[in-house]
Amino acid sequence: MTTHWTPSTIPQPQYQAAFEALEQAQRIVLITHFKPDGDAIGSLLGLANALREHGKNVIAVVDEGVPPYLRFNPGSDTVLSKLTTGEFDVFVSLDSSDEERTGEAGIYARAHSKLVINVDHHPTNTGFGQIYVVVPSAVSTTEIVYDWLNQVGLPITQNVAIPLLTGLVTDTMGFRINSVNERTLQIASALMHAGAPLNDIMARTLGSMSWKSLQLWKLALPTVQIANRVVSADITQEMLKSAGLGQSTDTAGLISFMNSVDESRVAVIFREIPDGKIELGFRAKPGYDVATVALSLGGGGHRLASGATISGTLEEVKAKVLPLLYTIALAEPQL
């Protein structure tokens, strides 16, 4: 059953209960959210590699597979792009605030697993599953996996440390978001000590872009507008096709770029997806909370980075969503 939590009702992370369930399991499937970012893949592979080194039988899955720019992570070649067979004792959902985010793989896993463990750091997590390792104060889900492994005494080898640091780097935008604290840097240092190369990870994630992605930016930037301190852009199916990109393309780099505009407080990308819906990506500057808008539209995420998917044409959705964002952007910041 799904429970809509509030910050005061989120249970304490059940590290030991979750580990005991994995210890008893013969067949384990790990799944992260579709259109995965660095934290999704980092938490997926960090936990998968640790459990495999512990002798467990683990299958790791994400719809459409690991994006090319994240395939430097150890174990990425073992990640399946779909799940259509198998029965499992435990399904671990990673970095997904709701069941829908786990995609087609998650639908299959829920129907063919005895137990679901929910591992996430989003404050809008809906409370699905039977065992919870949900920590909204964590800067990334890989931070939670790091703490979990330490709690139960599993070693953090280089093959575990590299994906964990990948998630930490990408979800903090290179340690630049306001939730980064002294402990974040201590964890990064520990992962580097375990053999994770910080400079290489930052270059491969934050300092890298494919030619096709640049072509998409070229097509999308002419649609950029700003009004009431909200900067917006459109991405159509035709743009993706012209750039030679698929549906799993990550546009986080573009929206972060838009969010850097001095005159804006909120950034949004309206992205067409094939089933007659629009995917919304939100970013905000410190003091502005876009998670409330995302949650009201059936989505979720963080105060400064969130999203949702709703039905309608581009123009219909923009007419509905932009006024909500204007209200946020024109208000006084809540620091």
Explain what this protein looks like in three dimensions.
- The chain is an alpha/beta fold and 335 residues long.
- Helix content is 39%, strand content 19%.
- It has 2 domains: 191 residues, inorganic pyrophosphatase (n-terminal core) (Alpha-Beta Complex); 120 residues, Diaminopimelate Epimerase, Chain A, domain 1 (Roll).
- A hairpin with a 3-residue loop joins β8 and β9.
- The two termini are 35 Å apart.
- The model has no long low-confidence stretch (mean pLDDT 94).
List the main descriptive attributes of the protein structure presented here.
335 residues; alpha/beta; inorganic pyrophosphatase (n-terminal core); Diaminopimelate Epimerase, Chain A, domain 1; 2 domains; 6-stranded mixed β-sheet; 5-stranded parallel β-sheet; 11 strands; 19% strand
Which architecture of the largest domain does the CATH hierarchy give at level 2? Alpha-Beta Complex
Q: Roughly how many Å is the radius of gyration?
A: 19 Å
How many structural domains does the protein architecture include? Answer: 2
Taken in chain order, the helices and strands follow as: HEHEEHEEHHHHHEEHHEEHEEH
What is the quaternary state of this protein?
single chain
Q: Helical proportion? A: 25-40%
Strand order of the largest sheet: 6-7-8-9-11-10
Number of strands: 11
General form: globular
Uncertain spans: none
CATH superfamily grouping of the largest domain: inorganic pyrophosphatase (n-terminal core)
> In the CATH scheme, what's the topology name of the largest domain?
inorganic pyrophosphatase (n-terminal core)
- What's the level 1 CATH class of the largest domain? Alpha Beta
